[in-house]
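Margin note from the TA: students keep mixing up input and output lines. Inputs are the sequences; the output is the structure of the whole complex. Example:
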Amino acid sequence: MTLLAVKDLHTHFVSRDADNRVRVAKALNGVSFSLDAGRTLGIVGETGAGKSLTAQSVVGLLRPPARIVSGSVIFEGQELTNMPAAELNDLRGGDIAMVVQNPRTSLDPLTRVGEQLVRLHQVHTGGPQALSQQRALEMMEAVGIPDPLSRARSWPHELSGGMAQRVLLAMALMNDPKLLIADEPTTGLDVTVQAQILDLLRDLTAQFNMATMMITHDLGVVAHFCDDIAVMFAGSIVESGPVPDVFAEPAHPYTRSLINATPERFRMGEKRTLGGQPPDLYNLPLGCTLQSRCTYASDTCKATVPNVEIAPGHLALCHFAGQLAEKQPVKDQASRNHA
Amino acid sequence: MSQPVLTVRGLCKRFPAGGDRFVNAVNHVDLSIARGETLGMVGESGSGKSTLGRVILRLSEPTRGSIEFDGQDITKMPKGRVRPLRRDMQMVFQDPWSALNPRMRIRDLIGEPLKLHMRLSRSERDDRIEALARRVNLSNAYLNRTPANLSGGQLQRVCIARAIATEPKLIVLDEPTSSLDLSVRAGILELLNEICRESRAALLFISHDLGTVRMISDRIAVLYLGEVVEQGRAEALFENPSHPYTQALLSAHLPADPMVKVNRHVLEGEVPSPIALPSGCKFHTRCPVAIDRCRSDVPEVHQVPTGQHARCLRIPDGGNIYHRKQTA
């Protein structure tokens, strides 16, 4: 069953320049995806591609000048984009939980960690304080914090990065969320700690039948942790589909070059096709946003780009989706100097 | 192999931590790098990678041990005599935004080491700046701009241009690609690889990203709590890790390919404090194959059949292997 459905979401930053003219940065341009219970979707892309903005748009955490200009976000049959703040607040931290990249800045430095968990539970469910405390200890145990009773009395600064991320995860689980949004949950952590956290997330996702939206720029995490992948570029999902399909047959030139730039595929001295400036969001080109960087680009790319379904569930936003194998690159890394 | 550019023996670095306690950041490290060779140094945060890089360049004073650079012992050399040697040993830092003076133009930033270390006329210097910019694939159009106008990848290219300006014999790179996007990272690595081959400079490449290190290194040293636990040729070390810590580290690495099966051995617990180092083998508190002797005896360095050197008591009895690579 579809838990979360995002349809044609457009988020713009509307501001005024020095001459008081309205400027619009088109940060999200028609993002659509859906997520079923128990599934994990990995959203990848370079800095500024709109990964985190997608998450913020979904949960209504946008701050001016960013705003959703069109599109819909449907969570369990309810439209979130026009939901009153009070109702959204009930969902956030309740059915929709979020874990962010920097765990230490997300904890209140002046409150003991156990108390922070208890508060979150109290706000959403009320009930006796003792029950919330019990729940907090259980969740701390579930995320593998040793000796939860004494850890609950720790201050955030006393925790290591991995431990702080576990506390945040425990906090996210306090109210049995149906959807977990994890924004780069392991980026600042060491590989061995990352392995611990990812294994934990995987177990918890299965145990609580949560849907997880995992934002990351690490293709290794996506390859081994996610069921589906969505690749973002300049505010659009350029390719999406089941992880094995997309890695085996990347249909979009951007995905293809991204995967070829990973240490596993990259060979020194080979011609690269990636790099270059991301397009100017204030002034997006007509048609494909990748055209200035794409080695396959031709005049065709100035026309509106079709979202081609190459295989069931595997979509790519490209005129030449699925035909890259027989196509020769038409230009040789024109933007190499600007990488 | 030619004479090593850098030889480090028994190097230790500790920092006072109040009272009579010390943070033991680097403990008895031995390593050497030859001309044209890239040594990758991996380890988790707090393993002493960056400190080691800084001590090697005398940016931080060693506590014990010796550093021999280009045939000279620089361990105790007065600062004034180290300075001219800096021409031959350069460093590239992790964060290019804070490594470059935001008020200087790119042209002057690249020209700075030339000004300090080489006697060149103005026009010679300008020619050289332009040649360096070309070398690192940076368009000349950027030379008159300030760092704020460049992207992270471009700034890291500027840092590299500065580092190679004086044609050094050794370049220490401390996480040079960690702050960059994947798309930009590959280009920087390719550039470093080319430079290493052309100039025959020795590179010490410090990183926590195993994939990156594997890509660029000839040899790899694995650091745990300030100690080199395993050292060897990159391919051998990745194919047959012999120290239990290396095995755990490699098994935690996720290759960006869903078809490669990973055989995970997640380590329990956290890294012990470098203030109170564990007795015996420093890894025994988390080691899955530790025996009683590991708590008391400091392990010797053993060579394993695949050529690496590893510091583990269990190598002679064959009990060091708990991780076998699985291929799908």
